[in-house]
Every structure is written in C-alpha cells, then in structure tokens.
Amino acid sequence: MHSTEPLKKSNQKSNQKLTKNSETTPDLEKLADLAFKAKTLAYAPYSHFKVGVCLQTIETQAYFSGCNVENAAYPCSQCAEASALGHMVSTLGPEVKIKFIFLAADTQEPIWPCGGCRQRLVEFSTPETQIFSQTLVNQQSGKPPQSAYLFDLLPNLFSKNLLL
Ligand SMILES: [Zn+2]
C-alpha cells in the first residue's frame, strides 16, 4: 500500500535543499538499477503491485535492496522497504544509518513509502537522508526520479527520544 501523492510542496523545498547541500552525490543509476532489479523479484500474486527498494548506507556506502513479499493472509505481507531494512540491519548491525533510499515501481506516478514504512525508515535515517522515487515509464522516457528528504515526509515522527 503506497501513496502515489507526489507531495509536491515537500519536493520543491527538498529540491532546493538538494542543490544547496549536495556534498554526497547519489549514484542514481546504480540505485535505480538495484531497486528495479529487486522489483522484478517481488512476490505480489495478490495485488500484482511490485515494488523494489534500494538503500545506501552512510558509513560503508553499501547497497541493500528489497522487494515486497505478500502473503495469503494479507496482513502478514511485507513492504519492500521493510525487506531492504531487514537485509541492511542483519548485515551491518544496529548502528547503521541510511544516506539514500530509492523506490522503483511500475506506476504512472512515483510512489512514496506507506506511513508504516516512513516510520521504519526514519529509525535508521538522519535529517540528511534523501529519498528518490522512479517509475519504469518515467525512467524509459529519460525523466529523473522525484526526490525529497525523508524527514519531510514524516513530520512529528515518533522517535526514540520520546522513550527516554
Ligand atoms: Zn510500507
């Protein structure tokens, strides 16, 4: 379940920030390649809505991809973001932080993570974590992915600071 709302206000603001503060340039071609490859592996026999995600970490610059994994008991299904997060944390451990997130889908408009996945992703992100979203159609016609800062997509997020 992903929103296809492009969050235009947030994107415009984020694009300005990206221009001003781009000390680390994402390899969008590599991120897209890995995210779209992951999408082809998705298990989505019920919704037929295949999603691929690729995360790149800050410290090691390593890439971790994941796809959605559905289940006949629908609530047991897992979003692609959760798959990629599990892949990343089980490889690099609990201190890992995300620099870039790339979402790939076959939709007409770029998709953004569902509410639950926004919360999952911010747990391992910083205010500098950037998210990109691309569709197959837009990629094939040469359009760049849309982008935003993850924290802009989840205002008033629930953080561990609230538990201390
Ligand atoms: Zn989700």
Task: Provide structural commentary.
The protein is of the alpha+beta class and 164 residues long. It has a single domain, classed as Cytidine Deaminase, domain 2. It is built from five helices and five strands, in the order H-H-E-E-H-E-H-E-H-E. A five-stranded mixed β-sheet has the order 2-1-3-4-5. It starts with 7 loop residues before the first helix and ends in a 15-residue tail after the last strand. About 10% of the residues have low confidence. It binds zinc ion. Zinc ion binds next to helix 4.
CATH topology heading: Cytidine Deaminase, domain 2
Helical content, roughly? Answer: 25-40%
Oligomeric status: single chain
Report the CATH superfamily: Cytidine Deaminase, domain 2
Number of DSSP-assigned strands: 5
H-E string? HHEEHEHEHE
Give a quick summary of the entry.
This protein is of the alpha+beta class. It has five helices and five strands, in the order ααββαβαβαβ. β1 and β2 (63-67) form a beta hairpin.
Q: What are the main properties of this structure?
A:
binds zinc ion, 164 residues, 21% strand, 5 helices, five-stranded mixed beta sheet
